[in-house]
Records
---
Amino acid sequence: MKKQRVVRAARVEEGSSNVYADLGYANSEGMLVKAELTAKIAEIIRRKALTQTDAARILGLTQPKVSALLKGQFRGISEHRLLECLTRLGRDVHIVIKPAPRSRTNGRLTLSVA
C-alpha cells in the first residue's frame, strides 16, 4: 500500500517590481538599476556573439570580471562603470533629471532601456 502525502498550499505574496526591495536590501533602487544595466550589457554581448575575452578587451575589464557580470554578479562595479561599458559597446546613454511629482517628496531612480 502506498503512503499518501499531505502537501500544504504555499502562501504566495505578490511582490513589487523590485526584487531587491522585496528582499529588504538597503539600496534596492540602485541595485535594480545595476541589475538592469548588467542585463543589457549581457544581451549586447550575446547579440554580437562576443567571447568573454573579446568583450573584456572592448569593455576594459578582465575576462573574470566579464564572466562575473554575465552571471549577474555586479557588486564592486559602479553604475558609472556599467554605463561606460554600454558606450564601449556602441550604445548612447542619456540621463534625464526631472522634478518628482507633487505626490512624492523624494525622487526615484529608474532606468528605461530603448
---
Amino acid sequence: MMRVRSALFVPGDRPERLPKALASGADAVIVDLEDAVEPGAKDAARAAVAGSLRGCGDRSVVVRVNAVQTIYFDEDIALCAGSPAVAAVMLPKAESAADVVRAAASGRPVWPLVESARGVLALEAIAGAPAVGRLVFGSLDFALDLDLDPLSTAGRAVLDDARHRMLLHARAADLPAPLDGVHPQLDDIDGLRAEAARARAAGMGGMLCVHPMQVAAINEVFSPSAAELAWARRVVEAAAGQRGAFRLDGRMVDAPVLAKARRTVEAAGGA
C-alpha cells in the first residue's frame, strides 16, 4: 500500500489544473466530481475528467465520486471502472458497508470519506468492508453535520473523538492510518503545520489539502525529522546481535521501541 502523507484535491471541472497537481509533490491527487462541481455541471465535468485521465499514467489519481444517494453516482463509478488512470475511488458521505460495496463495483480500492454522525457510528462496518483502501476524515462536513464550532475547545474535543474512533477501527481492520481533513486557511501555513503535527502525533497518516502550496508543509510534518531518523537508525544498528532488551544512550530499547525505530526508517524510504 502506497504511503500517503498529502492528498491534494483538484476540481473535476478544471482539468487544466491536473498536470500542476500531479507535479506538486502530493502523494495522491484527488480529482473531485463532488463538492467542487455544481449540479448543473456534473456531466460536463465527468466528460472533462475522462479526457484528462487519458493522458495520465496507469493508476495515477484518486477520483472523488458523488455520493451513492445521488443520480450521478453510477456514471461516476462507470468512469472510474473504465479508466486505467484511476488508482482509487474516494466515496463521500460513506455511512454503511453497503455504500462501500456499491463503490467497489469500480474495481478499485475505496477510500470511504467519513463526514457524518452516521458514518462515525458505522465505522466498524465501513472499515471491515471489502475493498477499503484507507479511511478519510471529512472534518469540515462532520462539524457541519453536528453543528459544532471546529475552532472551539468543545468542538475540537468532539472532532478528536471521531478521529480516535477512526484510528482504532482502521488499526483493527489492518488498514493504513487514516487521512485527516483539510486546513481551510490557505495563507496560514504555520497553522497548517500545527494541525498536521497534532494529527501526526495522534496517529493519523496524512492530510487532505486543497492547494498545492499546502503540500510541502504536510509532507514535511508527516515525514520523520532528521533527529527522529538519526535515533531510529542508531537503534536499528545497535540492535544487531542483541538478544532481548538493551540500553542505548541511557534509554531502554525493547521490542516496541525497536519496532517503532524500524517503522521510522521504513517511512523514510529505508535511507
---
Amino acid sequence: MAIIIWLVIAALLVIVEIATMGLTTIWFAGGAIVAALAAIFEAHWLIQFLVFAVVSLVLLIFTRPIATKHLMKDQEKTNVESLVGQSALVTATINNIKGEGTVKINGLEWTARSKNDTVIEEGSEVIIDSVSGVKLIVESK
C-alpha cells in the first residue's frame, strides 16, 4: 500500500510541476519515487519519509540550479531588466529625501532614486543598479 501512496504523491507532484513549470516540485517527485523503492523493500515508514526528504532536498539543492541554467538560457531579458548596468544621464537632480530625480536612457525619462541616498546633481552620469517598480535605482559612475 505504501508503494501506491508514494507513486500517487509522485504523480501529483509531476502534475503540479507541469502546471507551474517552476522547477521545484519535480525534485520532490523524484524523492517520492525513491521512497517508493524503499517501500518495495519494506522499509519502515519513517525511513521512507527520511529517504523522501533527503533525496528531494539533495535533488533540489544540487540539480535545480543546473537545470534552471540550461532551461532558461534562451529567455531574453525584458526591456526593463536590460537597463540594469547601463549608463544614464541625470536630467533632474536626484534627492531621495525630497523624492525627486529623473534620468534619461534610450531616449526615455525615468524616475530615479539614489542607491546610497546621496544627492546626484543634474548632468551627472549614473549606472543603473536595479529597477524598483517604475523607478530606476542608480549610483554615481
